[in-house]
Amino acid sequence: MTSVHTSARGPASDAATRPTDAPAPQGPPEPPARPIAWAMLSRALAVPLILALVCFLPAVIAAQPGNGVRDTAYWLQLVLTCYAGVRLSTMILSTRRRLLQGVFWMFVYIAMGVAPFAQVVIGQTPTPMVGPRSDLVTAIAMILVGCAAFDLGALLASRRPLRRRTPSARGAGGPAVAHPLRLRLLVVLAFAASGYYVLKLGGPAVFFSSRQEISATVAASGVTASESNVGSAFLKGFGTVPALLALLFYTRRLVTSHRARRTPSTVLVWVALAVVNLIVNNPVSNARYWFLTVLVSMLFTAFPSSAAVYRSVLAMGVVGALVLFPYADRFRYDDEGYRPVQSASVFEPLATKDYDQTVMFANTISWVDARGHTYGRQLAGSGLFFVPRAVWSGKPEDTGVRVGQWMGMNMTNLSAPLWTEFWVDFGGWGMIGGLALIGYAAARTDRRYALAVTRAGPGPGSVLAIVAPLIAGYTFILLRGPLLQAAGKLAIAALCLLLISTFRERRAGRRR
User: How far apart are CA 308 and CA 317, in angstroms?
Assistant: First the structure.
């Protein structure tokens, strides 16, 4: 009886009775499987979901009227759309939440699959293609190869067991957690930086006007120079990122800690941070992709263990991207500059707005054929984004800007998807290797996040429980590109996380 009773105890009891000098297990247990009810729900949803994403939607697009040519590009795009639809379906129906991989496949299905397929069928693209049709065929084929490389990297990561990070005798070496005092300093920094941002622009009212008004106010504030946008990037970055991070950490504390919910000071700080974010991170004054980052990171942080929220974000994200996203730039310009979308079909805006990733990849292939590869120069410019052009006279511009200037475009705010960034610097093999590494890192992060949000994780102060949702939301920006535009806020977030993180193991009672 005694042996049976001992074996029935959970992992927490085993950890409590294990001697402190005993070696830790080599790999942490995987998160528990979902209940049978969820499994039955997945079986019920599997067939209609896969049919809708892989068969029904591509068939509806293929039946649209247009002047598109059904050549090799058409069939390759159809294959890519169906492949991304299958992978997105597996992410939605997965037994475990895979935040980074799920958002990756949602982006690929929408921006690299459905939207370009509609463009091929209708015969119209948001950005003109200056090269031959063969460059478009090459672009679609390399996107498909890059997706396969991402899957290969994720597969390799799933075969490697996770190792538990055991603290040393001094208590160091455990999982990263937010130091309580440094977290309070982050809150102070958030209030100070966002307050300065609001005052510099003349008060909260301008944040509810339009992005055009925000840009004009920032230019008039004197923080920008004609040859550099570093000052503007730092003002906007520090005015928005610390406030979002502080809100995410306090949201997690309230969600996971009964003591925090009973502490008035914690609740008041969360309310104040929510008000600040409502001002500086609202959808009126910010780009749509940044607001998606705010929304997705908040949902995944507030509901860290909810399979329903995870599936809803991926499934409803497809609907929102196809139906709402092309119309969500209402606040980009003021009333005089706004031009509403006029379309007879829900698929027509996909061919005329926003989703220019595939055609820009084709244009980049043409540009590289004419100018040659840059061999790391573009990525170096993105990594050293903070260096002013007055110091680095030959600092590279955004990849999308450079290709747009070569095309002779007046408006050069064009996308440069991650496939493009790797292609410009290192060619096809560099693109394959880069996406394989990203797939590997995404899968490892997803697995560690699934453990971090369980009861056996680091607790309310877990840094990974905040980093994974934040990166999942920011994945839209990273994949769309250009990287030079995306590097600023990402670096500010990394700096804030580095300042508040500690790897010293705290007592379990205080952590919980």
Answer: 13
With left for phi above 0 and alpha for psi between -120 and 50, is residue 419 left, alpha or beta?
alpha
Q: Quick one: three-class SS letters along 68-90? A: CCCCHHHHHHHHHHHHHHHHHHH
Give first-to-last CA distance, the chain, whole Å: 32
Report long-range pairs for 312-318 (Cβ below 8 Å, ≥24 apart). 313/102, 314/88, 314/91, 314/92, 314/102, 314/103, 314/106, 315/49, 315/92, 317/106, 317/110, 318/53, 318/88, 318/106, 318/109, 318/110
Report yes or no: 260 and 460 within 8 Å, Cβ to Cβ. yes
State how far the Cα of 331 lies from the Cα of 443, in Å rounded to an integer: 36
Cβ atoms within 10 Å of 275's Cβ, excluding its own: 11
**Of 503, 494, 511, 500, nearest to 188 (Cα)?**
500
Q: What is the pTM of this model?
A: 0.85
Q: Is the distance from CB of 355 to CB of 110 less than 8 angstroms?
A: yes
- CA separation for the pair 454, 231 (Å, rounded): 41
Q: How many residues does the chain have?
A: 512
Q: Which helix (H) or strand (E) holds 197?
A: helix 180-200
* Residue 145: φ, ψ to 5°: -65, -40
Per-residue pLDDT tens digits for 400-431: 889 999 998 888 888 899 999 999 999 999 99
Where b means 16+ CB within 10 Å and e means fewer, 10-32 reads: eeeeeeeeeeeeeeeeeebeebe
Structure-model confidence comparison of residues 214 and 57, the more confident one: 57
Q: Write out the two tokens for 43.
A: 């079986």
**Element (DSSP H or E) covering residue 174:** strand 172-178
SS3 177: strand
Q: Output the pLDDT for position 170.
A: 52
Identify which of 290, 409, 431 has the alpha carbon closest to the alpha carbon of residue 361. 431
pLDDT digits (tens, 9 = 90+) for 355-388: 889 999 999 999 999 988 888 888 888 888 878 7
